[in-house]
């Protein structure tokens, strides 16, 4: 970390407090003149730092940037977030995460971008990713689990996003199989998990997460498949993306450790408790094939268990579901 990043981190970790130039210079082993010089650089890059002769420096406001050092600073994580790659503009964080995974990046590396020019959804669809407003990130995992269990990881990220929306934005969200998070029936988050594996062995899995945090109504294009929303539209309050991302990473790290220790059952139960379509009649669109039935729950591998009208329970591996009755 540079002195500038360390000063920034120090001020951020003492919200509302003054830190004397002497204390900062002592902690960072740099001169007081060097502290002042770096404070000026921080101010030029958008930080509002108050300097009082007798008291020292106090952070009044920080720009809404997703800086790698800020994201990593003081994260209490076992695996996820050990390394953060922060990009201003990129094609897709999933593409970049895949690239660095192939170069040997460590498990838990997080790739985050302010803006994506080719944000990806499932089945070749695209993900709207304007700059400065939302969260676009991809997490690299290298789990030693059978290949068939990899889809279970989608549900870890779904539960972690819902709980972070609750904690940070005070929003009540629901999960929709397989990869959507909805608030008041509108999509606020999409998940895109991609795997690189041989028959028996997973090389890596990329968990792609896109959350609409501060997107305004005019930033949503016409013609989206479903209604869409953002945390700002739902609550009227802007979300600090850094706070949201850090909270999400910490939660995902806890759930990933639990998953490696105890398997899929705990997360499966939590996901089912957040799914409002359990026991609801739905239609499943699988492209060439449609079927109707009642959602029973998740199968051990993350497949949707659907009870058809003839009583038989079918496993749905992919598709889009819509309720056919009022919830
Ligand atoms: C998804 O696909 O929902 C997965 C989206 C994953 C995005 C993240 S961002 C970070 C990482 N890097 C990437 O490149 N991708 C991941 P799907 O279920 O196929 O939904 C895509 C559909 O959602 C589109 O066809 C649109 O109709 C709609 N859509 C596009 N952008 C949206 C947005 N920002 N909010 C809500 N809906 C959107």
Write the layout of secondary structure elements.
Elements: H1 3-12, H2 21-28, H3 32-44, E1 48-52, E2 56-61, H4 68-72, E3 84-90, H5 93-102, E4 110-116, E5 135-141, H6 152-169, E6 174-176, E7 180-183, E8 186-197, E9 202-211, H7 231-235, H8 241-262, H9 265-273, E10 281-285, E11 290-298, E12 304-308, E13 313-316, E14 320-323
Helix pairs in contact: 1-3, 2-3, 6-8, 6-9
The protein binds biotinyl-5-AMP (BT5).
Description:
By secondary structure, the chain is of the alpha+beta class. The chain folds into 3 domains: 3-61, Arc Repressor Mutant, subunit A (Orthogonal Bundle), CATH 1.10.10.10; 68-273, BirA Bifunctional Protein, domain 2 (2-Layer Sandwich), CATH 3.30.930; 281-323, Roll (SH3 type barrels). Helix content is 31%, strand content 27%. The chain has helices at 3-12, 21-28, 32-44, 68-72, 93-102, 152-169, 231-235, 241-262, 265-273, and strands at 48-52, 56-61, 84-90, 110-116, 135-141, 174-176, 180-183, 186-197, 202-211, 281-285, 290-298, 304-308, 313-316, 320-323. The strands form 3 sheets. A 7-stranded mixed β-sheet has the order 3-4-5-9-8-7-6, with helices on both faces. It has a 5-stranded antiparallel β-sheet with strand order 13-12-11-10-14, with no helix packed on it. A two-stranded antiparallel sheet has the order 1-2. Helix 5 links the parallel strand 3 and strand 4. Helix 1 packs across helix 3 (32-44), helix 2 crosses helix 3 (32-44) and helix 6 (152-169) runs antiparallel to helix 8. It is elongated, with a radius of gyration of 22 Å. The model has no long low-confidence stretch (mean pLDDT 92). The site of biotinyl-5-AMP has 28 residues, from helix 5, strand 5, strand 8 and strand 9.
């Amino acid at each position: 970390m540079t002195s500038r990043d360390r000063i920034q981190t120090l001020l951020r970790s003492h919200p509302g407090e003054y830190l004397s130039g002497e204390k900062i210079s002592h902690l960072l082993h740099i001169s007081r003149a060097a502290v002042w010089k770096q404070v000026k650089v921080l101010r030029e890059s958008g930080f509002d730092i108050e300097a009082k002769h007798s008291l020292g420096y106090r952070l009044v406001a920080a720009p809404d940037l997703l800086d790698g050092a800020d994201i990593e600073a003081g994260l209490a994580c076992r695996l996820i977030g050990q390394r953060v790659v922060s990009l201003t503009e990129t094609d897709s964080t999933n593409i970049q995460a895949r690239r660095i995974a192939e170069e040997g990046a460590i498990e838990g590396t997080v790739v985050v971008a302010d803006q994506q020019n080719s944000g990806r959804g499932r089945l070749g669809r695209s993900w709207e990713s304007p700059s400065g407003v939302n969260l676009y990130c991809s997490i690299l995992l290298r789990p030693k689990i059978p290949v068939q269990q990899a889809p279970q990881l989608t549900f870890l990220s779904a539960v972690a996003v819902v709980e972070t929306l609750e904690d940070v934005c005070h929003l009540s969200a629901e999960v929709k199989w397989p990869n959507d998070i909805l608030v008041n029936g509108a999509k606020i988050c999409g998940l895109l998990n991609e795997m690189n594996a041989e028959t028996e062995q997973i090389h890596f899995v990329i968990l792609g997460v896109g959350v609409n945090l501060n997107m305004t109504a005019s930033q949503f294009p016409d013609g989206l498949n479903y209604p869409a929303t953002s945390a700002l539209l739902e609550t009227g309050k802007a979300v600090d993306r850094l706070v949201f991302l850090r909270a999400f990473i910490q939660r995902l790290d806890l759930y990933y450790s639990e998953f490696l220790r105890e398997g899929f059952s705990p997360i499966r139960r939590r996901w089912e408790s957040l799914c409002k379509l359990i026991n609801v009649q739905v239609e499943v669109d699988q492209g060439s094939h449609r079927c109707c039935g009642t959602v029973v729950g998740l199968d051990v591998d993350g497949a949707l268990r659907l009870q058809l009208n003839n009583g038989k329970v079918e496993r749905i591996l992919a598709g889009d579901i819509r309720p056919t009755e009022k919830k």
